[in-house]
Amino acid sequence: MSSSLGVAVIGAGMAGKAHAAAYRAATTLYRPVLPEIRLVSIADAYEPLARETAARYGFSRFDTDWRAVAADPEIDIVSVVVANSLHREIVEGLLAAGKHVLCEKPLSDSLEDARAMATAAGAAAERGLIARVGFSYLRAPGIEFIRTLIDDGRLGELLHFSGRYWTDYGCRPDAPISWRYQGPAGSGALGDVGSHLSYLAEYLCGPVAEVSGGRFHTSITERPKPLGQVVGHTRGNVSEERAPVTNDDYATFNASFARCVGTLQVSRVAAGHPNDLTLEVFGSRGAARWSQTNPGQVQVMLHDEQGDVAGYRTVALGPAHPHYVGGWAMDAPGVGIGQNDLFVHQARAFIEEVAGIPTAESLPRCRSFADGVHNIEFLAAVAESAALGGATVPVTAQEH
Ligand SMILES: NC(=O)c1ccc[n+]([C@@H]2O[C@H](COP(=O)([O-])OP(=O)(O)OC[C@H]3O[C@@H](n4cnc5c(N)ncnc54)[C@H](O)[C@@H]3O)[C@@H](O)[C@H]2O)c1
To answer: Does the beta carbon of 232 lie inside 6 Å of ligand 1?
Structure first.
């Protein structure tokens, strides 16, 4: 195992700060004890944010150009947490410079770029470098517990999946234009939050075979230009000038998975639902549902409890559930789980792999760039279905 690893985060926006905080906390959880993590640099093109984030999270310095991170031999591990269209150039540059890379989802905003990144990752792997994509919700204990209920047969044969990821960051017409609103069809709500929902659906229901009923809608077709820096979903003073929104505010589609069929729906204009990822699986022996609005609970319904008390019961996640023990400083049931914790567990898993800790002693590994490409192929099939008026479009099986 390496004695110490130097870390940098590129992008100090909404998710960049979550990565920075995660690297700080990752060494405090689970076993075995990790090597020393040196928090070296936060790089953001917007200098005030880079400076403040480095100071806030205890990183030794800040940079305003990712190339300074690439050139620094003290840095081993880099998270890439910038707009999706920028992932390729930065990731390829970092891999060429010999860094292990954890890239945010979706791997890119285009299939062509994502495939090129996977090729670069394959070449880098031959030099011992690890490139992974941040499918952070796979770290949610509630998702893992539902997967357990499916795998051990307690839900029976899967019959039907329903998933939605509703957000409301774009529900106000005065929310300023940002990279999130500009890109090809399918790079809006679908690429932003549908990327999460689609890998979760496959994790529970098996590989997707085809999609149909694709439908996109842009509800707010132009937005004001910001007068200052936009970070994440922040609003602020905006100009009189407006810019067109070129991608989807809303997307819906059907999908056929190996284990069942399902409907999936995403939105960034669902007022009152700031971060509502909710999914439900129905089986021949019962059902289960989980929501990011209350991620410390799973609701379970089992047919063998039929009678006058049949119905969903609420299960509080705790030490009886997967990856719970040791996963929080206070790992008692009921202490609460949040989305930020998932980034900590993800950072821990990435460090474990880079540090050479065997799979059997580690959290589940982060997903590969090939998985990231497959995720975009899935979303591209939805875009094709939408372009063809809802036609059925096959999704290529994933190569491993
Ligand atoms: N896993 C999750 O739950 C989750 C949540 C939010 C975002 N994300 C992903 O994280 C990525 C970033 O999203 P965000 O919401 O943090 O974006 P953001 O707009 O809040 O932040 C992006 C930051 O990148 C900086 N930047 C722009 N160009 C740069 C460059 N060339 N070099 C260095 N910095 C540059 C900007 O100044 C900004 O501070 C996206 O891929 C997004 O899909 C993931």
So the answer is: yes
One of 3.40.50.720, 1.10.150.20, 3.10.290.10, 3.40.30.10 is the CATH number of 4-137, namely 3.40.50.720
In this predicted model, what pLDDT tens digit does every residue of 110-155 receive, in sequence order?
A: 999 999 999 999 999 999 999 999 999 999 999 999 999 999 999 9
Write the burial class of residue 127 (CB in 10 Å: 0-12 exposed, 13-18 middle, 19+ buried): exposed
Compute the distance from residue 16 Cα to the ligand 1 centre, in Å: 6
Ligand 1 binding pocket includes 10 (Cβ within 6 Å): yes
Alpha carbon distance, N-terminus to C-terminus of the chain: 27
Task: Look up the pTM and report it.
Answer: 0.97
Give the CATH architecture of domain 141-294+296-336+375-386. 2-Layer Sandwich (3.30)
